[in-house]
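Appendix B, Record 12. Input sequence as logged:
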Amino acid sequence: MKTVLVVDDEPTARIAMAARLKRLGYRVIEAVDGKSGLDALRRERPDLTILDWMMPDIDGPAFCERVRQDPELLTSQILMMTSHDQPEQIAEGLARGADDFLSKAASKYEIMARVQTGMRAASLIRRLEDVTEEIRRKQQMLERELQSAARYVESLLPVSGTIGPSVQMVCLYRPSLALGGDLFNIVSWSDDLLGLYLLDASGHGVSPALRSASLSTFLRRESLLRHIGSSDPGAILTEANKHFPLTENGHYFTIAFATLDVRCGTLSYATAGHNGALFHRRSGEVCWMAKPNLPLGFDPTTSYLTEELPVAPGDRLYLLSDGLYEVPNSNGDLWGQGRLEETIRRFGTCPLAEVVPGCVSEAIRWQGHEQFPDDVALMGVEVMDTDT
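Logged structural output:
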């Protein structure tokens, strides 16, 4: 049953209005002044409040103002009663929070029409509040799922430290609120032969994170030996391209895969639509390693070629996601690969433990806040001098 609160300090007018509303089938609550009316409004949360303008202490307009200033009450529907219907009065009442007006001389038909109009508005507001609450609840559930997925992704990542007799690795992962599909890891072929990769699944949310986890399972040492039988990066990406076609929604992977042979002093690598591979020589020379080619899944007949670079102690490889450099500042300008490269040059031969978080800090400074719009993954690998 719909509830109406009638607030009026005149007993005759209040009782008459309450009787009329009861005959119309409404549950009625009565209040003798503004203070008790506010108490009843907070306690009963009626569908509609019919409020007298002229009352001692808290009059109608002041009552409306208090309601609109209270977050728990501000959506209440208020029908103001007045014996004056001058435009100035109506304008003042509306400006101070009333939803509609009712003349004390109104006929029973007008009263019924005004009350029904207020009830319709109240019903719409209640429905909107219910929908808003459901959206909020689902948003909280989604955020919990994303946080759980982010923790799962982080559990798959390697830990910074020494990953070979003369190889050091420092990594950093910052999931966004939307959670993407960035993932990186190490494949230990032997003490002197290491595989390194960073992949990114298109799209955001739990689905790309799980697809990335699936590809990372394929990229485990035992799986690669079974499917490819070698550590060749081009052969690995060519085979992965066959196993991970485009999804029904057109989602795909980009990836950079490198194999570091410390004994021979070589770095072999291949990329599939991924631009986040940078080689920094101890001499200061910096080069981006990506080649123009398709991401995984676009064409099952695509073959990916392996490139090779000589490696010496002090040289560094950085594998990173585009979420690191595709961050806008307040003007919408991206930080970009150029500024990232300048940052790495500026750090020079500083320890990797300073360079990796330092690059992320520079990206944060550029965008002006901590939260990245996309996942950020950065892996720095350095060949150490065995004599030091």
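Residues 3-131 form a domain with the Rossmann fold fold (CATH 3.40.50.2300).
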